[in-house]
Amino acid sequence: MSAVCVSKFISRDIISRAVFSAPVSTLQIPNSLPLQDFTNSNLRTHLKFRRKKTLVFSKPSHAELSAAEDEWLKKLPEKKKPLYSHSLPCIEAWLKNLGFYQSKEDRAVWFIEKSDWHAQLSLDVTDLYIRYLKSGPGNLEKDVERRFSYALSREDIENAILGGP
């Protein structure tokens, strides 16, 4: 392996750890500079002196689906297919299309606010959890949680979630 290739590999590894190990709320990404321009000697200088951007997640409006999300919606498998056959970007675009917005603290947590209820959805390793919150509108005495296997179809999960508590 040449020295240049090794340098690129090490730089990418350092950047991955520096960028992706930070909590989402404090995640800072350097201005767009191709990874191949980083070397071990100038990586610290670049990260220290270059202007940085902070990623922020907020509640989007329904009109804010990006072109990329529209593309992922077009790539959704049939609604009768199990959710495990969907890619993560497809699931995220589907959730946004249903009216969910992503948590700022945890990228696996989503929220939805309907007129009759509010809910928190969690994408766990083995299951999808929906918790209808008693703090939202409606007359819930306590939070109501339901768990759905990724083996269920997207249509069944959507109907169950949007049916409310």
Write structural notes for this entry:
This protein is an alpha+beta fold. Helix content is 34%, strand content 19%. It contains five helices and seven strands; from the N terminus they run αβαβααβββββα. The strands form two sheets. It has a five-stranded antiparallel β-sheet with strand order 3-4-5-6-7, with no helix packed on it. It has a two-stranded antiparallel sheet with strand order 1-2. It is globular. It starts with a helix and ends with a helix.
Describe the secondary structure blueprint for this structure.
Blueprint: H1 3-20, E1 28-30, H2 40-49, E2 52-54, H3 67-74, H4 88-98, E3 101-102, E4 109-113, E5 118-123, E6 127-133, E7 144-149, H5 154-162
Antiparallel strand pairs: 1-2, 3-4, 4-5, 5-6, 6-7
Helix pairs in contact: 3-4
Order of helices and strands: HEHEHHEEEEEH
> Helical percent range?
25-40%
- The number of distinct helices, counting runs of at least 4 residues, comes to 5
Average pLDDT score: 73
Which residues sit in consecutive blocks of at least 5 with pLDDT less than 50?
Answer: 1-58
Oligomer: single chain
Distance from N terminus to C terminus (CA atoms, Å) equals 58 Å
Number of strands: 7
Derived structural class: alpha+beta
Main beta sheet: strand number and arrangement? 5 strands, antiparallel
Strand percentage: 15-25%
Dominant shape: globular
Radius of gyration: 20 Å
Q: Strand order across the biggest sheet?
A: 3-4-5-6-7
